[in-house]
Amino acid sequence: MTTARSWLASAQDSPFGVHNLPYGVFSTAARPGRRRIGVRIGDFVLDAGGAARAAGVPSVLLDADSLGPLLAAGRPAWAQIRAGLTAWLTDETYRNALSPLLVPVAEATMHLPFEVADYVDFYASEHHATNLGRIFRPGAEPLTPNWKHLPIGYHGRAGTVVVSGTPVVRPHGQRKAPTDAVPDFGPTRRLDIEAEVGFVVGTPSELGTPVPMDGFAEHVFGVCLVNDWSARDIQAWEYVPLGPFLGKSFATSVSPWIVPLEALEHARVAPPARDVEPLPYLDDRGGEPWGLDIAMEVRLNGHTVSRPPFATMYWTGAQQLAQMTANGASLRTGDLFASGTVSGPAKETRGALIELTWNGEDPVKLPDGSTRAFLENDDEVTITATAPGPDGAVIGFGEVTGRVLP
Amino acid sequence: MTTARSWLASAQDSPFGVHNLPYGVFSTAARPGRRRIGVRIGDFVLDAGGAARAAGVPSVLLDADSLGPLLAAGRPAWAQIRAGLTAWLTDETYRNALSPLLVPVAEATMHLPFEVADYVDFYASEHHATNLGRIFRPGAEPLTPNWKHLPIGYHGRAGTVVVSGTPVVRPHGQRKAPTDAVPDFGPTRRLDIEAEVGFVVGTPSELGTPVPMDGFAEHVFGVCLVNDWSARDIQAWEYVPLGPFLGKSFATSVSPWIVPLEALEHARVAPPARDVEPLPYLDDRGGEPWGLDIAMEVRLNGHTVSRPPFATMYWTGAQQLAQMTANGASLRTGDLFASGTVSGPAKETRGALIELTWNGEDPVKLPDGSTRAFLENDDEVTITATAPGPDGAVIGFGEVTGRVLP
């Protein structure tokens, strides 16, 4: 399988070659109300339901307006459908039947690919947590005492998860600088991004039954990119003692393409050494850990400002899943959990402006001569990523992008 | 309308008289797979879809297996349907047609009445927040500096909201006493309850557009009771800096009956005086505030341990809604937001064991001679509530109950 090549020219040497095959939901201008499942291949979106019909194996999982039914179908169905897509896109026999079902990427409007059930955001980068600790709690230990014992997480707002390209309206809220006597209310002055990786749950689990780390591939369908937009002034004032709320809940953007977990088999790497012994339910040192070598890039108005390395994350997705369900909490199809900001050890690998600019003290310089401590109106932020595939292939995640509106 | 009486004997002088008419979803042993919308009246559940058909006005909103379509229909539809139900249950003409559609409460199995979209939990009782501040942060100001400026809240897990009667499995998690060097993993030793009131959102709102306080009745369909089960040892170790997560997400129980907001018109009272001037978007002092005189009762193994008075809440549901959307976050049909623990000023009005027993130091005594610092296996907790209706009528909320399993 790893040496297969597509009959589609633009799939050769593409981050969307036959080893990737990410899923999304698209429509076209000709039929704007008709949402269909699409599979990205080269510079095209393959109408997946149509392709299955053309191949003589119609699929209710692919003939849908959301990835929901496919997500719910479970790992064996995912493998079977992926094998079918791979065959159809590599076997010349299918070229004539499938070619009319290829929509140029530029003609496809992408939609939120599934209904988000619960959204959980973790805090799994040691570099990010250390930087934020130093900024928010100067003089104290940067990491809280629990940090190396468990992946810290919290629930976010599922209803405001939006697809890449959705504009982000600058949120209003209560802002209070340490020097102010009382808060005032108005648009955030410290609008930020967080470059993250998100995991999409397919197979649900029973209430009362934890999912161990080795259940990761059974329950997780795939991976996307996440921009967890953050209003730092709102967040700083509200977050004690119950955590982030309105500083985050105005919008969370996700990339339109969900990269199947199977496409990331060659991206698996060992996570960093753990300097505190994990409790057994989080101890992946004797198993097959789920570190992932995903190279991310953050662009602000087209200019690259950071290259966060996901391989440096202290806690893996499998550990996050085990933690999230350790108390018996059930999973639902469509649950989304994100890694938290991905920041590496070097300054130019930090995944949030608050770290890149050190709380605004050291603004980012853009090629047009302007600087940014935080985001201004009309700024556009784009996060992209790639991971290694088989035989030198590159697995592309596409992008998650958004522009700030006043 | 306020003097209307039902032709149903058991509805007379009942907390489920014609001034209440709460909605739920039920099935019967004869047809266990058939979920229907029911309206509680006296000692019966009225098959609401059947009643509409019998009355000659079939309704797709009532002929459903969930309250979802009704919730989404909006305030004018809610008023129209409530007027119809009131007419059918008070006008003798309908007695013969509707009587066969009355199912004795004991024969109805109640289900989760709607799919919870996002679940938000507030922290709106000054007495509760003060007590917890004293317990968790001794020596410091009990209320955080933001507390009187905004209703503090956080997102909880929507997927583990369960209907009353669902057993609660004692959750496992990391526990670390201040005297322990490292955490261990095991069943919580400090399982607690939180007696709360929940608000059910019907009408959605647009992303980017805040809902002001006077939009409360347009968007909120009704009110239920909530038990926000809490594992205090897990919570204490995990909650800094991102708030409660696994200490709460194992289960949140809700009462099966949603009391329509219209049924609470006579329960409206002025909230407590605010000693910090609210910012304009939260300032209800010149309007018609949404304080609600709901008298709650908490029973542990049948013994009343507390009577929390909802009228003492510092922040109202309307303020919570305005806060939750102030940043432009959208509402979805099925969003549930809860008040946080309801605690009054007196010890016997505190809505959580951690307060009632002052962190376990002063256990609750039960009639069988046993005591409780926190919940033991097989303990059953039941929360009930009533509110004043018109002409001396009482509006009942029914109960939210749950038993602890090992």
TrEMBL record, chains A, B:
PANTHER family: FUMARYLACETOACETASE. Residues 19-113 form the Fumarylacetoacetase N-terminal domain. One of its GO terms (molecular function) is fumarylacetoacetase activity. Residues 120-404 form the Fumarylacetoacetase-like C-terminal domain. It comes from the Bacteria. The keyword Ligase does not apply. It holds the Pfam family FAA_hydrolase. The lineage of its organism: Bacteria, Bacillati, Actinomycetota, Actinomycetes, Kitasatosporales. This is fumarylacetoacetase. Its EC number is 3.7.1.2. It is an enzyme of class 3 (hydrolase). Keywords: Calcium, Hydrolase, Magnesium, Metal-binding, Phenylalanine catabolism, Tyrosine catabolism. It comes from Kitasatospora herbaricolor. Its cofactor is Ca(2+); Mg(2+). Pathway: Amino-acid degradation; L-phenylalanine degradation; acetoacetate and fumarate from L-phenylalanine: step 6/6. InterPro entries: Fumarylacetoacetase, Fumarylacetoacetase-like_C, Fumarylacetoacetase_C_sf, Fumarylacetoacetase_N, Fumarylacetoacetase_N_sf.
